[in-house]
Amino acid sequence: VSVFLVLGERDFPLGFIFGAATSAYQVEGAWNVGGKSCSIWDTFVHTYPERIVDNATGNIACDSYNKWKTDVELASELGLHFYRFSISWSRLLPNGFPNNISEDGKRYYNNLIDALLEKRIQPLVTLYHFDLPQSLQDFGGWTNPLVADWFAHYARVAFSLFGDRVKFWITLNEPITFCDIAYNSGSQAPGYISPGVGNYICNKNAMLAHAKAYRIYDKEFRSKYNGKVSIANEIFWLEADTVNDEEAAEKARQLMAGMYCHPIFTKQGGWPPVIERIIAEKSKENGLPYSRLPPYTEEEIELVKGTFDFMGLNFYTSRTVRNAKPGEEIGPWPLIGSSDIDVILGVRPQWKQTGVSWFYIYPEAFRKQLAWLKKEYGDIEILITENGCASSNLDVDDKVRVQYYKDHLEQVLLAINEDGVRVMGYTVWSLMDNFEWSDGYSVKFGMYDVDFDSPNRTRTPRSSADYYASVIKRHSLDVNNKIIDKL
Ligand code: PNW
């Protein structure tokens, strides 16, 4: 039999994959169970309860450590092609190093992976989603250059234990969050504030960590397992406030996207030249005989360059950019502005705010972002590793979230069909409500509501779950399309 498929403009390309995501600290709970040691998030929430809304913790979270079978059921109900979750480094390697692999950690992730595969759901595994073992933080964490090797050793353990079944790997989730937001504002673990210094040291070490893990996969595992490895960067779309601010906006894009993409995805590698130059000048003005931005050696440039099989993109929101006025106070990057490049970020009044402080809705920005990435880094495959919408209410009929998915998926289709961007797939953040970092449980991203008052952590589907399931089934935004079987 031959089957002819005519794709309409509201259909997704054949082979386009749909998934949903969570991360270990945000859902697992069981923070001190089965030999798991503390991560920097365990320490952070226990040391600075006042930095988290309602003094919340991830001690129990969604209890996915015990309820993983239910999570797989939800993923299966939705018809997901893949489920993105992360491994807790301190659950798998309680002392942070590879000489003590936890039997309990191995069992937990093996169970989850096998259960997903049984339902024909591909596991997409993030190795690092903000939860460094505290034992390594005690040696300086992401500011110690040795962290690149610590991470690489951990990655090798994960590849060798799970690589036979896991074909998609993300090394690091959003280094901008655990470097820039963390060290510039202190609102993320480890809570240490060192603006303009700690963030850059962390940034460079994160790039090397990613690259070393990628090289290990390439040398030791690729020929056997044939998987794909990349990094997931969070990038706000940054738009010139007025026509006169285009240069400021491009500088800001290089600071937000470029610092985490240029070293990996360009032919030249290394830092974005414009940023490297500006920070060197600023450092001189600060009276330093060297730049606060640690330079790459030639060897390091080569090590990091080209370490991707696709690009992971977490996309949520947008900001306007303008030059700061002389003497104007500038808040922490990337939340408010940057005193290194002298820009101020803002929002337009027509962008509706969601249930969370940093999040304003501007769907057209998604297409602009994808087109900019293609222009900047070439015709590479992009996997949307996160996109989703926050609310602070308990609506089961979450119309705003449904609209957000629809509007953003429309922009993905335009990027594919009109701009020729090679988008491979799309991931909803999040499968279910979970511990939303400094917002605790006050902010909800889930397609499934989780009842955090019940010991059972009951999961209930919202309208967005039904909507997403139907998009996946139809492989289309066209509601008149016939429901088709999993491709
Ligand atoms: C991402 N900000 O984090 C993370 O990958 C998820 O763990 C998180 O739950 C999700 O987005 C929703 O927030 C972010 O302050 C954390 O701009 C903070 C910011 C953005 C993304």
TrEMBL record:
GO terms for biological process: carbohydrate metabolic process. GO terms for molecular function: beta-glucosidase activity. It comes from the Eukaryota. Coiled coil: none annotated. Keywords: Glycoprotein, Glycosidase, Hydrolase, Signal. It holds the Pfam family Glyco_hydro_1. Belongs to the glycosyl hydrolase 1 family. Homodimer. This is Myrosinase 1-like. The lineage of its organism: Eukaryota, Metazoa, Ecdysozoa, Arthropoda, Hexapoda.
